[in-house]
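In response to reviewer comment 3 from the previous cycle, which asked for concrete evidence that the modeling workflow produces usable outputs, we include below a single protein chain processed end to end. The sequence was submitted unchanged, and the resulting C-alpha cells are shown without manual editing.
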Amino acid sequence: MSVSVRPLSGAEVGAALDDLAALRIAVFAAWPYLYDGDRAYEARYLAEYAAAPGAVLVAAFDGVRIVGAATAAPMRHQKAAFRAPFEQRGIATQDLFYFGESVLLPEYRGQGIGHAFFDHREDAARAAGAQAACFAAVIRPADHPACPAGYRPLDAFWQARGYALVPGLVTELPWKDHGEAQETAKPMQYWLKSLS
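The workflow returned the following C-alpha cells.
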C-alpha cells in the first residue's frame, strides 16, 4: 500500500469532515472506545472543531480515499472541561496544543502513519508557539468484559514519542458505548510532552 500523509488546508478541511466523521465512527467503535457513533453528534463536534482558530487536520490518503486522520488545535479553544484539569494545576493552557483524535483503518496500521500524524501535529504546535502538546486517552478497567484477548495499549508508542502520562490529570467526556441506552461520562487520562 502506498499512503501519503499531509495536513489539509482551506476548503480541503471542510470537504474532509464527512470522511473524518465516518472514520471516527468506524475506528472508535472498537476497544477501548466502544463508541456507538451518532452522525448528529459528529456534525456538532466537527463544526466546533472546524471553527477553532489554529485547528489542524492531517489526513492519510490511499489514492484519493482518506483512510486515516488526526486533528489538533490550541488548547485555549477546547471545551472548558478539557482545559479545567490544567488550569486547576496552574498550567497555562495558552501554551498547550491539544491533539484530538488519531484514527486509522486497521488494514493501514503498522506502516508509520501514526508517527507521521504526530510529526505533522507537533510541527503545527511548534509553529503556533506552543510549549507542550497533550492528548487524552480513555481509561477502561483492566477486567472490562469487552477487552479483547491480547489487547496491547498504545502506551509504549506514546512513550517512545516522548509523551508521559500525568498522574491525576484526568478529564471526562460523555458518549454512548455500544450496548448503553444513553451517554455516560468516560474518564480520559492526559499525556503530555514538552516541545521546547
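Strands lie at 4-7, 56-62, 65-74, 96-104, 132-138, 164-175, 184-194. We consider this sufficient to address the reviewer's concern, and the full set will be provided in the supplementary archive.
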